[in-house]
Write a structure and sequence with these properties.
This protein is an all-alpha fold and 446 residues long. It contains 15 helices and no strands. Helix 1 packs parallel to helix 6. The radius of gyration is 21 Å and the shape is globular. The two termini are 36 Å apart. The relative contact order is 0.13. The N terminus is likely disordered.
Length: 446
């Protein structure tokens, strides 16, 4: 089946809404996947919740690398569709999956042997490390089922189809929601496995999405081609994917690394504060679902229009998206400000954990609109084959602004100071990202 460009004509606003609407549901499902784990593990106790909080940045590092490769595949596939080259679509998709699998194998081996060293370095205490080890040993074993569907879903989105990846994620969160209580608490015939049960539930859910995603891109979309080809052609595909994917992965890895560093700063205040921060971080991913969804679908929109040389549509799409991000960010800030305490009480009943969550959700969300602009700018620059500029924006946000501000905030104002520093960093980075993207658009039109 020959792929054709779907995003190069018609109303830009309607096109972006049509793409983003199902993607929001998919992204919410992905975040809900983690929130379900957080909810049920939180019922086990504060130590278990703190252990899960320590795993969050490490898991995000691996997912960020997978997403980097996935976005690289998506950007190249969307451009190939815009050009009408289906052979290139198949080659990039197939080679991207092979590359992802090889990288996963390397991470699994490294991960198994570094669990204790890594998490002790992040500030995990002796009573928390065994719980972390129980969870991560299983999670590492199931890593291929986490990573491969991410690559496949990004390839599917490049065709302009955001509904199928959403359905795949809904299946995952449904299975995880069912298996979590059964395996964590040992309901019915199932064993009581505690935090280990959460990891097993995750692997089971991801295995199902692994099978479904591969079936779709092979049988329905015809995007995989296993015919023998020259190694030179495969290496060329890998080179093209990594040129875009590595800077994206590097930029995305910076975020969980930063979360890990901030977690280590907060760990000095006690495990209850770590637990609260871990919950708040997951809620933030949920709160940013709308703008993250828009940023995710914006890549195929830009790619297809870039391939069709319709720069005016790209420019208008960026303006609409940035305005949408600011308005949505303001609404989310108001909602979280009003309901932060009620939300916090869902996950844990400890007063310190609740106060930490409330502090975070009352301060950091004021910057969400600017964070959305950064995400949109990153996506745009990556598809424009400017991945190093995109990575530079994230590096600046985290290492120039976020971490120094968090340290200074902690020194002078305690926990509230840390969160205020994060909010200020997001605002400054969003403003700079806007002007960086605007400058590139001017050059693109010349």
């Amino acid at each position: 089946m020959k792929k054709s460009a779907k995003l190069t004509d018609g109303s830009i606003a309607k096109t972006l809404i049509k793409l983003t609407a199902p993607m929001i549901l998919g992204f919410v499902s992905m975040v809900a996947f983690n929130l379900v784990d957080t909810y049920f593990v939180g019922k086990l106790g504060t130590n278990e919740l703190a252990a899960l909080s320590f795993t969050f940045p490490v898991i995000l590092v691996i997912i960020s690398i997978a997403l980097g490769i996935g976005i690289g595949v998506s950007a190249l596939v969307s451009i190939a569709i815009g050009e009408g080259d289906h052979h290139k679509v198949q080659r990039i998709t197939t080679d991207g999956l092979i590359l992802a699998f090889l990288i996963v194998v390397s991470f699994v081996i490294i991960g198994f042997f570094t669990i204790e060293i890594l998490f002790k370095a992040l500030g995990a205490t002796p009573e928390i490390v065994p719980l972390i080890k129980e969870y991560m040993t299983i999670w590492y074993a199931g890593m291929p089922f986490v990573v491969v569907p991410m690559i496949a879903n990004n390839a599917i989105r490049a065709t302009g189809d955001t509904i199928t990846p959403t359905i795949i994620m809904l299946v995952a969160v449904t299975v995880n929601s069912i298996m979590d209580p059964l395996l964590i608490f040992g309901l019915g015939p199932f064993p009581n496995l505690g935090i280990k049960g959460a990891a097993i539930a995750t692997v089971i859910a991801r295995f199902i999405t692994f099978l479904v995603a591969l079936w779709i891109i092979y049988h329905r979309e015809k995007m995989i081609n296993f015919k023998f080809t020259k190694l030179k052609e495969i290496f060329q595909s890998w080179k093209s994917i990594l040129f875009i994917g590595l800077p994206i992965a590097g930029a995305r890895v910076i975020t969980p690394i930063t979360i890990g560093i901030i977690t280590s700063i907060i760990a000095k205040y006690g495990l209850k504060y770590v637990a609260g921060f871990g919950v708040a971080s997951r809620i933030q991913f949920f709160a940013l679902a709308v703008v993250r969804s828009l940023a995710a679908v914006f890549g195929p929109f830009i790619g297809q229009n870039l391939g069709a040389k319709k720069i005016h549509r790209i420019e208008r799409g960026i303006v609409l998206s940035e305005n949408f991000s600011i308005i949505t960010g303001a609404l989310i800030f108001i909602i979280l400000l009003l309901f932060s305490r009620s939300i916090a009480g869902i996950f844990n009943k400890d007063s310190i954990v609740i106060e930490t969550i409330v502090f975070y959700l009352s301060i950091v969300p004021i910057s969400y609109g600017f964070q959305g602009i950064l995400l949109i700018s990153n996506t745009s620059l990556n598809v424009f084959h400017k991945p190093f500029q995109a990575a530079g924006l994230v590096i600046m946000q985290m290492f120039v602004f976020c971490i120094p501000f968090a340290y200074l905030g902690s020194h002078f104002f305690g926990i509230k100071g840390i969160f205020s520093g994060i909010a200020l960093a997001y605002c400054l980075a969003g403003i700079i990202a806007h002007f960086a993207l605007k400058k590139h658009l001017i050059l693109l039109k010349k």
